[in-house]
Amino acid sequence: MDKELLLSLLKKHVNAPGLINDIIDEVVEKAIDKFIADSSNPYDDMLKAAIWPVIEKEVKEKLAELWAQL
């Protein structure tokens, strides 16, 4: 089996962008939220509120772009 055939089968049957989005939402963001909840520092709450939407959007877009290039 050649590489191109394998990649085309993966793209056909695996919803990598959906999986990646769920991992970001359910694992990464929840880990950040847990860290913030355990911290007594009020600035980490403000920092997450300010930068998380931008980081989340950029990472999801970049990973979708990379997946489309396969």
How would you describe what is shown here?
The chain has 70 residues and is mainly α. It has one domain (16-69). Helices cover 89% and strands 0% of the residues. It has 3 helices and no strands. It has helices at 3-13, 16-38, 42-69. The protein is elongated. The two termini are 16 Å apart.
Helicity range of the residues?
A: over 70%
The quaternary organization reads as single chain
- Count of alpha/pi helices: 3
Spell out the helices and strands N to C. Answer: HHH
Using only C-alpha atoms, the radius of gyration works out to 17 Å
Secondary-structure class: mainly alpha
Unreliable sequence segments:
none
| Major sheet description | none
Tally of discrete structural domains: 1
Distance between the termini: 16 Å
Gross morphology: elongated
Strand content: under 5%
Number-wise, the strands total 0
Kindly state the mean pLDDT as a whole number?
A: 91
Which key features would you list for this structure?
elongated; 70 residues; 3 helices; single chain; mainly alpha; 0% strand
List the helices and strands and how they pair.
Layout: H1 3-13, H2 16-38, H3 42-69
Structure described in brief:
By secondary structure, the protein is mainly α.
